[in-house]
Amino acid sequence: MSIHVIASNETLLASLRSIQQQNALPLDSGRLRTPDSSLLESLKPLDDAPAGTIILLDSPIRLASTAHDDLAVLDDWLRTRPQLNVLLLSEDSSKALLTRAMQAGVREVIPLPFNPAELAKTLQRWSDRARAQAEPIHAADAGNTAASHSTPTAFDSPGRLVAFMGCKGGSGTSFVAANMAHIMADEFGKNCAFVDLDLQCGDASFYLGSGANKHSLSDLTRQIDRLDMQLLASCLHAVTPRLKLLAAPHSLETAIAISPQDIEKVLSLVRSLHELVVVDLQRNLNALTLKVLDMAGVVYIVMQSQTPDVRDAQRLVNMMRDLGLHETKLRLLVNRYKSKGWVSLSEVEKAVGLKVQHVIPNAPDWVDESLHIGRPLSAVNDHNAVIDALREATGSLLKSNPPKHRNWIQRWIGQPA
Q1: How far apart are CA 307 and CA 327, in angstroms?
Q2: pTM confidence score
Q3: b/e 115-135 (16+ beta carbons within 10 angstroms → b)
Q4: Mean pLDDT, all residues of the chain
């Protein structure tokens, strides 16, 4: 793990050196950036920096466009170096700069003037993350697993990416996303991948196979430089012949080391091998979720028809609009709907500012067994209002009529009627 500083003046450079020395943090290099030089010149010596390297950079406000120009340079530079951790020091704390910085791949924006104690804690935190990021997976294990999988074939055009995001914890987002992915593959015959990006609380691995997957997303991102079809195949868990699962990391330590650039590279490869890619997102907006939302063709916002959900959905949708997310992507899905609940569908639409596209009824008796044993709902109970509503939503997404109902023999052999 190494730390490199690029500063715009001697005073700041000396202060940063002093903080690192006082806290026993390694300073591999400290560069002074001249007023008339481009950021790319200062970054060039770090072109081949190893994974986990921390770059502490300040973006001075000499001109109104300086910070924007620096972020444009960083955006291009980090696309081919997603393993690096850039921390930006800036006097500008506006929402516009924070959003642009996240989109460019900056890991954290630190306000200037900085608090020395807080900066020391931040550097120590990222140093700890860098060590986790640099740890490779067990090479022999990955090689043996890869050998047992056939290398998938790429499609001519990238698959469609469909993201699911809950406006509130406990809204059933993972259940809805996992079951719609299963329906796409098992009943509509689509070659589908499910990527669990709820990095801290990933439940989809259990919903789609009782958590039987051995490898996870972090096994790819920790060796992102050698990511290819064979390595990806070694980490995909086959739920059904047409549905593959890329599980969330098994530990928080490995999850926090994953960068937006890592996710972009992984999802781009997954999309090249599947017709549809379903992504279950954590519900907070950050650099990682923004990257996925930018890549997505459709974004389902999942909520319940309760007052706290309505308030959170309204806030989430407004934030997405402020961040420039195109409204045509958004589809509002009301889960666990009760016709005599506290908030009507018309009131939901008025408050959130989006039309309710799909309604999944509340039927805990049917759903609980599926959740308890870790199997898709259609495999547990194929005749209920919840699975019918999920089929309708899936058919709407795919612009195709739901498949004909199957008898038990056809469900058992996995063939559509």
Answers
A1: 23
A2: 0.68
A3: eeeebbebbeebbebbebbee
A4: 83
